[in-house]
Design brief:
By secondary structure, this protein is an alpha/beta fold. The protein has one domain (3-258): Vaccinia Virus protein VP39 (Rossmann fold, 3-Layer(aba) Sandwich). It is built from nine helices and eight strands. It is globular and about 50 Å long. The structure holds S-adenosyl-L-homocysteine (SAH). Residues 28-30, 32, 57-59, 62-63, 78-81, 84, 107-109, 124-126, 129 line the site of S-adenosyl-L-homocysteine.
Length: 260
């Protein structure tokens, strides 16, 4: 390894641990709410005891815990970040659920499950990491026939948007699209019984951006004069401002669908 590579790697590791520290200080790493999790859950038939559920990109596991609490199923939360998984496993133990709720470190693009083994694949605000179309196609093969998919995904809520927000999303996640287009994709990939609803704004404001204000203050206190930390916080603040300006134009939509 030459010096340049070494420097790049250490900068990368450093960013990685800062991002991780920032987001592990939050209960949610994306927009959502317990009501929304339960609303999506109510759209699928009750899961029997021992049913297999995977929550992909679970973060620190707020909705994973909720899934275990509101069903009789065996729930596995999977995330790339080991610190998030440690937190989920601690929360599972604290709730007395560790016999049927566990977190594992893994990649949603290379699932460590048997094909056709899952009754339900859940994913809140995370499928964008591999892209919606790739995700729904890949994950389908891990569902049992008749198994269910429940994912929240960034969607346009208007037909035409101001340039500022278009440009932001084309850079952040160009696969953002209208609800109609996402429904068409689910259908094209063979899903049936599709239902959907859009998350209320409070999932973004009260539950996601508001708790970050205090988290940001403490984070900057812990990392004074650190340009990477400052940039991270500036980016999150910018996102929150965009949401307050353009919340009518985009949001997360929860899609629930069945593999035939
Ligand atoms: N579902 C949680 C977290 C959403 S944020 C919530 O709603 O609060 C997106 C999550 O996806 C992060 O925790 C991130 O670490 C995880 N992630 C990103 N890429 C991933 C991948 N390839 N495989 C698994 N998890 C991934």
């Amino acid at each position: 390894m030459n010096n340049e590579q070494e420097n790049n790697n250490s900068i990368h590791d450093f960013d990685f641990s800062l991002i991780c520290e920032y987001f592990s200080s939050l209960h949610r790493q994306g927009p959502g709410s317990d009501e929304v999790t339960r609303q999506a859950l109510s759209l699928i038939p009750a899961l029997h005891e021992g049913a297999s559920v995977a929550d992909l990109g679970c973060g620190t596991g707020t909705q994973t815990l909720s899934l275990a609490q509101h069903t009789m199923a065996d729930v596995t939360g999977l995330d790339l970040f080991p610190q998030f998984i440690d937190q989920l496993n601690q929360r599972s133990r604290d709730a007395g659920l560790s016999h049927r709720l566990r977190g594992i470190v893994g990649d949603m693009g290379q699932l460590p499950f048997e094909r056709a083994s899952l009754d339900l694949i859940w994913s809140e605000g995370a499928i964008y990491n591999i892209g919606f179309e790739k995700g729904i196609e890949l994950w389908k093969s891990f569902l049992k026939p008749g198994g269910w998919l429940a994912v929240s995904e960034a969607t346009w809520l208007t037909d035409q948007r101001p340039q500022e927000i278009e440009l932001f999303w084309m850079d952040a996640y160009p696969e953002i699209d209208t609800v109609e287009r996402k429904l068409k994709q689910l259908e094209e990939h063979g899903y049936q019984q599709v239902s959907y609803f859009t998350l209320p704004d409070s999932c973004w404001t009260t539950n996601f951006y508001l708790p970050q204000q205090e988290a940001q203050r403490l984070f900057l206190q812990r990392h004074p004069d650190n340009p990477t930390a400052q940039m991270l916080v500036a980016n999150q603040r910018h996102e929150a401002e965009l949401f307050s300006k353009y919340h009518n134009d985009y949001g997360y939509t929860f899609f629930v669908a069945q593999r035939p």
